[in-house]
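Hypothesis: this fold can be encoded by more than one sequence.
Test: take the structure tokens below, design a sequence, compare later.
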């Protein structure tokens, strides 16, 4: 099972996803992130998701980055690391996993609590 499935399920419950990508693994050790776009763009919903991600107070700080078409939920330290390299996203994943293995393990362990927070914050009681 993909470790990011709980987060993907929460986001997908909010609006139909046209495209998504969710790498992250223990073997090989790669930091997790979820990049997606909705079938129908919905800026107010993205605002709600971003506020929920920012409001999470777990073991790992997470952020939501908005691209021209896609959004990405990722650990803030990994997002900042990617901004300092010229390796491309696969190269960044490999390098971060090699340089910061303990952080990657903490990130992977924090997916469940983040998904639970997003579910509680974003989904009406009837949808749980």
């Amino acid at each position: 099972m993909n470790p990011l499935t709980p987060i993907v399920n929460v986001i997908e419950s909010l609006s139909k996803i046209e495209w998504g990508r969710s790498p992250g693994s223990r073997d090989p050790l790669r930091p997790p992130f979820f990049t997606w776009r909705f079938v129908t763009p919905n800026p107010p919903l993205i605002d709600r998701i971003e506020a929920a991600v920012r409001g999470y107070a777990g073991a790992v700080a997470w952020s939501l980055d908005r691209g021209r078409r896609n959004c990405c939920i990722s650990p803030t330290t990994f997002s900042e690391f990617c901004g300092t390299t010229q390796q491309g996203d696969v190269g960044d994943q490999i390098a971060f996993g090699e340089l910061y293995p303990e952080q990657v393990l903490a990130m992977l362990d924090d997916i469940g609590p983040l998904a639970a927070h997003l579910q509680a914050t974003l989904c009406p009681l009837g949808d749980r």
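The chain has one domain: 5-127. The longest strand covers residues 17-21.
Hypothesis status: open.
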